[in-house]
Amino acid sequence: MNLSQGTIYHFLISDGRRNRVRLAEFVDGGRQIGVHLIELSRIDFEEAVENGWLQEDGPADSTPPWLVPLEGVAIEHLENRRTSTKESYEQKVNKRFAAISSLVARRDEVLADDDPDALINAEAKSMRPCQNAARLRLWFYTYVVFGQTKWALLPPLHRIGAWNREGSGRTKKLGRPSRKGRRHGYRCDVVMQQMILKGFLSHKSPHKTQNKIYSEILTREFGCVSTKKNVQPIEYGHPQGKPFPSFPQFKYWISKMISPKELVIALQGKHGARAKSGSKGSFADSLINVNQRIEFDGYYISEKLSGLIEGSAVDSFCVVRAVCALSGMILGIGFSEGKENMAAYRMAIYSMACDKVKFCAQYGLGISAEEWPSAGLSGGMVLDRGPAAGYEVQPEIHWLKSVELTPVYSGQSKATVESSHPRDKKTLGQPTHFHSKLDFVQMAKREILGVLKANHTSDAGLRMDEEMILAGIKPTPHDIYTYWSMRGRDSSIGIPLDTAVRQFLDVRPAAIRKDGVYFYGRKYRSRALEETGVFDLVARQGVINTSAYVLIMCVRHIWIEVKGVLFELDFVRTARTSLGTIDISLRDLQEIDQIRRDRAADLRDERPAHDQHFDDRFKQNTGEDWDAGKRKIGPPSKGGAALRDTADYKRFKGDKK
After folding, report:
1. How far apart, in whole angstroms, are the C-alpha atoms of residue 244 and residue 225?
2. How far is the C-alpha of 474 from the C-alpha of 480, rounded, in Å?
3. Which is it for strands 380-383 and 402-405: parallel, antiparallel or unpaired?
């Protein structure tokens, strides 16, 4: 209970020899702690307990209440914090315990005495040097009540200096004298403290330094101005001589009135404070299944690629990865033609849904099913704010449970995928660039194989539990994913390939002709499409314009829909087709198609002039026009003249032979 003389604590000391119970009453007066005994008969004590007049307030304490702030703190740490070590804590405690050691040895005798306090007082007077009786009683009862350990005798030195500096009646400036003189500056009273706090809350900004905030508080809240007197340095002053805080006072009281966390946020912003804050734990700590939470993010390839036609250095593309938050395994990859866009995110989702052997084959890569064992979508996706913020969650998409958009410029909100991005080594000196020999499709193949490399070689030891270590699992994302997936801890949602193609791939125009499907001038066919008879139908009716689904980074395969059925078509290669032109990107195919169209248009424009050129050369050589003669009505005559000309022609032909 809180009383005027301090806090009173009662602790039970049972006397088994006589029919009585004693309570040790400790009185904490702030600057001094006292103790005395309250004695009850056992009958009165038990009656009070049965009637509820006395109640047990929790288990017995092993630490004195005045030492609770130091409970659990190592003595070595307390020693290291001290500035003066004339006498160590252990020496202080041993000195006190030596004073009560004889009483501790006769503890039962002392507690069984009719007047223990008088016995302890007599002991104090008989000691040399003489001890303070009240202090000796406090040490003895503290030792007996609180665990019978010598460290219960530790003096409460942590409470030194806790007096109220802001009491009424004080006008003198506290603290050590200023370097500019003993009377320089003003005392920071409660009114000044509130003005400092009000000004800081009004003018704080992560874009301002503490000096700037301090200047604005002095000029706008306290009305100070900067002055210069003769050769004296420029300093702040008040026109009317009113008090204002110094910069150290401003920093001290701001740190006292605002929590450290809020102060860092105010001075450096939320993102700056978060970057310098301690870890709040891994996202994987709250997950139990793989594919339960998938994080998406994109990065740009720093290398310059080789153009398909001229081979010059061209900008690379953006790669989007989908990473499992529990295992760290990369489950999907997508590409964008240039800047990061939503098509790359849809492609990454498409690759998640696909069987990876099938997906890699679409890029001309052969892998085994064990190398990349994931297939299926996740119900929880964390997308980057930006192009992915426009992802349309249609009502018919039943597999998606939640879409989370991370805060702006907050990489830690998707730390799993951010940490998996490739990093380039930073070097000083003149700027350089690396011109890769790879084109777009070759670089996409390298990035896919880079996913396999990361899944099988990255160190994911921090994601492993003890049971996985005992099971001999390698600390790689691939092995962790396989471990949980084989035990049914897999939240992946299966989706048919045709559904994935329709929902996530780009749609572009195509044309069905009698000999194949033409997509930007390139021909595609498949045996299944031929069996539908669509080419026979086109042969009778002409060209059918349709749409094709395509992977924008590799047009080895396309998909078209005929009579509601989706067909995968392969690029038709001739005997003259080189292997290097099989796998090209959609952008390259469009560029080639545009070049083909431009050349055809140029030929159409040049053909009349070319025809006239050769007509003129013929006339110069023969003296007759290319189409000299005249058109007559009816069939040609078969008279004598015609018969003679025919006989001459036959005779000339025979002579030729």
Report:
1. 11
2. 8
3. parallel
The owner of tokens 């009560």 is 100
Instruction: Give the single-character DSSP code of 493.
Output: B
CA distances from 471 to 460, 461, 466, 468, 496 (A): 16, 14, 9, 5, 34
Q: Is 2 helix (H, G, I), strand (E, B) or coil?
A: strand
In the 8-state DSSP scheme, what is residue 176? S
Q: 120-171 pLDDT, tens per residue?
A: 899 889 888 888 989 898 999 888 888 888 888 888 888 777 666 666 566 6
3-state secondary structure of 399: coil
Sign of CA dihedral 462, 467, 468, 472: positive
- Burial annotation 438-476 (CB, 10 A radius, 16+ → b, else e): ebbbbbbbebbebbbebbeebebeebbeeebeeeebbeb
Neighbouring-strand partners of residue 558: 550, 569
CATH of region 284-421+436-486: 3.30.420.10
Determine the distance from the C-alpha atom of residue 628 to the mean position of all C-alpha atoms in its chain, rounded to a whole number.
83
Q: What angle do CA 305, 306, 308 make, to 5 degrees?
A: 130
What are the beta bridge partners of residue 290? 490
10 Å Cβ neighbour count for 561? Answer: 15
The tokens describing 336, both together, are 């964008």
C-alpha–C-alpha distance, residues 550 and 166, integer Å: 75
- Tens digit of each residue's pLDDT (9 = 90 or more) over 371-395: 999 988 888 887 766 565 555 545 4
Instruction: For the chain, give every residue range classified as CATH 3.30.420.10.
Output: 284-421+436-486
